[in-house]
């Protein structure tokens, strides 16, 4: 401590030296001392340092002054509060001094202090801010010296934007000081006042906000002089941009005034009016809705506002000539009073275009309207003469195209076309007009214009692939022009190439064939360009061109031979070069791969040159992945390229890749090896393949099922084509496969590839791997775990493992049919006298899986044996038996299906299990067209039987019945859907529940034949949302949720009628809450909880699938109620708040106050002292979720300036237990996203 104060004293002494260099160095040293975290100053040193630095601010030497100002920043955080106040007082005093230099330095000092004040200790910040604010307000009001005023306004704006919330007590004085400045004669003062006001409105209270708005509106209605009127309009726009969430309620008063001013003959005023409209459209989407059409009309009127220019309409043939004449005419008038420099009309046009863009981007629902009126108007204005305005008009049109892009999920829906008919068809009709207008602009000198043209056409092609099919000849000259060296910057060339790539990928190859001679040379020239970014982009285009000149998937008569060698040699130069950019290397490899894949049969003589280069690139760590992908293309080519020259060396290298810790490389390599084995097996030998097979066993693990699946596929190919290579498969590989077969995670594609492998292996007939050997291996895990039950702990098999192993046994048996019946009988013995449940289940499953593929009706006792298994005590055995009965029935429907139906009728006790068997039959058969045909004759009988059980009192049984009905309806929708509709009118509530649930099962995320029919009648099923029975309403909500999630198109148009019913189900109903006496305690039960939960789940789904059809403010009202509801519903609504903060931040910002209070109540709620542990855990989980919602609210821009939220956050930070939770949540929310970004780089 002593040494620090000694050192500081030493520096202070030097600072008084007469030599400016001494003073400079001492100040510099002080700066570096202050920046150390460890420094602690005693009171005396503090006082001296502060005094000294303030003295140095008036130093004669400018450099010393500058350093002294810089020292203030770190100093503020190191000294006590009263010292900071001394500094601030001195700086504020200097602000109004006579000396200009001192004023400047002090204002910089104040800005430094403000930006360094710690946000955490609000007491210090508040104190300092209050001191500065009082002084600044008076400096602003005095208006003596403009420069003082400007600096003061600047500092005030800084203060308000950083600490607006702490200055609440001063807001009134600040406002009083600022308002008169809006009519200051100096434009700079007016502008800075607007900035300060816009920061003030973010944190001020409602009264002040209203006062400011009233002041502005009064001024506007008085209209005393134009410059003030302009300022007021600018100010309104700025306020709306900064605090749009509070502006909505004033729109109705503001709009008429601004519309009136926008019609005045004053260009600048019009520009500001249009900018204000743009702000309203962006920030007050709901309130501005009634005015949208008026704003659109004004924009369209002013986008063509060009009073001083005559656009000749016959500019078709001689565009350039016409313009020349008009320019000469202007020259003659040059000596008149008017010159082009005074022409401000372009600003009006520009703001009109920007406002139009805002309207288009925020109003998806008016798309059809826009295509009628806005689209033709914008296309007609592509000829605009002012480059910047033209760019904005292009951007507005691009916004229109972006809005027309089909929403994700819609494209899956086959009947979405008639829905989307409107916009896309209208756009299709306007394509010729667009091309005609753009065609002229593509030869402009201006690079910006040409870039906009390409960007616009690219958007067009994304929205309507193939749209330019008939217009390619019109575009080719423009493309050539921009790829030429004389006319283009490198960015221009890159943009042009990117467009060409987009064009080639989105149109049919034959469209380009006649233009190849013109297209290829400039692309080849670009590949040879010295700038690597152009080369990289050109190689992408070249790769696409190769696919176009000789498409392998469709027959084509185009003669591509003249281009073959050119393309090849041009790419070869880039492929050989070792000293080029990484991206160029990779793209040259991909491009060459494509060339050999598509043109290899014409390059026989060249293969010995380029294939060895691929080998080199395989050995290089940086290019190996790209090379693997390129070789996969070559190996899979239908031209059967001769790869023998590199096979011997490549395969061992590929084998070594399987050891590398790079997932993408392993996946690529396995795919390539499989392709090589399938297409080139005759040029391989077992010795070569062993180099790969050795590496495979570690890949067969459940840790990565995708890699395991590709490994099994590769092994299957080897077993089919090179079985001798697998002679030692039982050493390492089979044990791994059997461990994988027991994995609870094994399913889907990985399981199918395992079944294929076993089938290929048993066919290969390797010694020791015959049918019986493999069967014994697969059954062993189950029998061993049974044997070992007495002696030692054997791992218990997961339920999924029984299914997987049974499927493997069945796969073997189907291949070896002659053994099938004997094996089934062997397992039937296991069923009749099982040692334990697991063996019983396993035997049942095996018979079921075999019975699916082989008709077992010849074993007469089978039915009875399976039915006997319906009665053991174990539930798992029963469910396995019901699965087996269903599966065996699939093998011979006429024999078994009537039997199952008859049993359902005869055995009421076993109904549930037998219905499950029936469900299994229906699910399995409806998977394939052949299965559907076999099932068709039985549908009426099944349907009739199911309808007998629709009103069963057990919910479980009803659900199975509903699922069966739903799946049957999918088979024959035209006949069965009307029958479901009729049953909606049934008296019985249980019947209605079952029918609505059945409809839920007809909605899947894949396109189905039933969709168009469902679309017509889903409204009728959803009308059950008004059903008097609570349970029917609940299942109707579940069905609605399923539709909104899987096929939003079904319900989008019904939302106007469905939403009010949905919202009414979110309310707590007193009449559904009852008290139950449990011994001495009274317990309340809320029967309405489930239906409310279902309703909130629907709301959450709609956020993702139908956001554009929701009135967010109405939606938020119900979210607010949910925040005060039961535990389960609170958890759901916290998720919604987080999602809404991402999807529609502006709306959430407007309602922030009402959302914060319930969140605060949750976080500050105390659990009763004598509660059980679960209560505490539940409460903790709630707090955590509520804080997650708070953290997501803080991500909304400007939310932290909201007084309610910031107060709540400071409350969290001052409560230790909440602070802990909050910090961990914020860490979680920032952590993973960065990690994932890092992971992708690999």
Automatic annotation (TrEMBL):
A GO cellular-component term linked to this record: nucleus
Domain Stalled ribosome sensor GCN1-like HEAT repeats region: 155-293
Hydrolase is among the record's keywords: no
Coiled coil spans: none
Domain TATA-binding protein interacting (TIP20): 1050-1213
Record flagged with keyword Acetylation: yes
TM region(s), chain numbering: none
Keywords annotated in UniProt: Acetylation, Nucleus, Repeat, Ubl conjugation pathway
Pfam families with a match to the protein in the record: HEAT_GCN1, TIP120, TPR_CAND1
Compartments reported by the entry: Nucleus
Domain of life: Eukaryota
A biological process from GO: SCF complex assembly
Family under the similarity heading: Belongs to the CAND family.
Protein name from the UniProt record: Cullin-associated NEDD8-dissociated protein 1
Annotated organism of origin: Gryllus longicercus
